[in-house]
């Protein structure tokens, strides 16, 4: 079937994996990648699909309503997968307004432009979909009731590797009440509410998914995993916030992209799905795995880079634990993660070490200033 799909934020980390998957898997779909190319957007992430006949890139700001109207109409868009956002918690603490502008006003502009165009087509909302990509951070923070970790009460096949621990008794469910803490998660929560409001008020076919922390190739090195891989390579300190006890639930980015593909095609309209691999790690344990893997692949003596660990002032309002219960998605649509965490980390570290030019291009220029501002006074 022919479709015209708009993917926003396709030059970013997760978006580039989603664009690549759709362009390669669906030659009959026209894929329009809309991205403002902020510091986080990088067309080098999509070099391999640049010339494909079913792929178009448009540089635009989602908060520009007229531009959204023009692009959606020109390309006769019938499906939207919305990933464009400001995505880094630390930046949101320094500059919350940019997050409100892009994540809230930008999402609203996109919704409104889609509404106007779709309501004006003969088939109205039939065959249309606005799919909004959100985060588990909207649910707030879970308590760390099992600091040493206990056998997880849930299992998923591929991710049930040796490290299969739960650090608390509760998990985020689709029904968990929203309780965002950071300006980032507050802006994402607000955008989720607008998406649902457009369904409930105007009947727009919408879907929302909330995913746990992603890792993998092409992630901007302000986020923990690529930042630490790059710092180890340069022998730079590894800034661990607080005591390193916070827990995150990590999912390989290609597994998230596969889930998005499945949900875009088979998800129930107006529904919500949580996406995660039951793969909780305490930051400090994860950091030790990264150090071990990077040292091994660089041919360093085991443990060489452990000395780089530097405990720094904690992030303000640092959420203690995130843990997603993704059994609804597994049960209803049959999704499960494809990789064990050890494999995913190995693949990821290898990718960053093999693609140093990609990293060096990103970390030259403006990045130095960001890094100094973020870490000099911690
Ligand atoms: P990212 O920061 O790597 O990429 C964001 C992209 O959006 C960039 O290409 C950027 O240029 C673009 N963008 C920013 N502002 C824009 C604007 N005003 N107009 C148009 N484009 C704009 O982010 P990511 O990690 O790939 O996250 C993508 C989405 O997934 C976000 O909505 C995020 O909230 C969500 N999410 C991320 C994670 C994660 O672990 N990274 C987990 C769950 C959900
Ligand atoms: P991050 O990758 O920023 O993702 P999020 O804040 O969305 O979970 O951070 C992951 C965890 O690592 C989080 O608990 C904060 C911590 N962290 C550090 O300890 N040091 C760092 O330099 C960074 C960037 C994060």
Low-confidence stretches: none
Fraction of residues in H or I helices: 25-40%
Overall body shape: globular
What can be said about the biggest beta sheet? 7 strands, parallel
End-to-end Cα distance, whole Å, is: 53 Å
The chain-level structural class is alpha/beta
Strand content: 15-25%
Number of DSSP-assigned strands: 14
**Ligands in the structure?**
nicotinamide-adenine-dinucleotide, thymidine-5'-diphosphate
Average pLDDT, all residues? 96
SSE pattern:
EHEEHEHHEEEHEEHEEHEEHEHHHH
Q: Could you give the order of strands across the largest sheet? A: 3-2-1-4-5-8-12
How many helices? The count is 12
Using only CA atoms, what is the Rg?
20 Å
Description:
The protein has 378 residues and is of the alpha/beta class. 40% of the residues lie in helices and 17% in strands. It contains twelve helices and 14 strands. The chain has helices at residues 13-25, 65-74, 89-94, 96-119, 183-202, 224-233, 253-266, 283-298, 327-333, 341-354, 356-362, 366-375; strands spanning 3-8, 29-35, 55-59, 79-82, 129-135, 150-151, 165-166, 206-211, 213-215, 238-241, 247-252, 272-275, 280-282, 309-312. A seven-stranded parallel sheet has the order 3-2-1-4-5-8-12, with helices on both faces. Strands 9-11-13 form a three-stranded mixed sheet. α1 (13-25) crosses α7 (253-266), α2 packs across α4 (96-119) and α8 (283-298) crosses α10 (341-354). It is globular and about 65 Å long. The model has no long low-confidence stretch (mean pLDDT 96). It binds nicotinamide-adenine-dinucleotide (NAD) and thymidine-5'-diphosphate (TYD). Residues 89, 213, 223-224, 227, 239-241, 246, 248, 283, 315 line the site of thymidine-5'-diphosphate. Thymidine-5'-diphosphate (TYD) binds at residues 89, 213, 223-224, 227, 239-241, 246, 248, 283, 315.
